[in-house]
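Run log // design_07
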């Protein structure tokens, strides 16, 4: 279970960067949610990973 949340963290961080690049390439006309929603899930999965690490 711990490894699953670690993989989710990496996946969502990558999606965050992809979303940020997408927004920048469209000169800010795209919704910023493409970058912020994956970052929210990345932070949640990192916290769950850290809680299970103890």
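design_07 sequence
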């Amino acid at each position: 279970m711990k490894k699953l949340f670690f993989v989710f963290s990496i996946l969502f961080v990558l999606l965050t960067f992809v979303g940020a690049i997408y927004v920048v390439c469209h000169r800010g006309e795209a919704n910023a949610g493409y970058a912020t929603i994956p970052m929210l899930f990345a932070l949640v999965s990192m916290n769950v990973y850290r809680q299970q690490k103890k």
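The helical segments are 2-25, 33-53.
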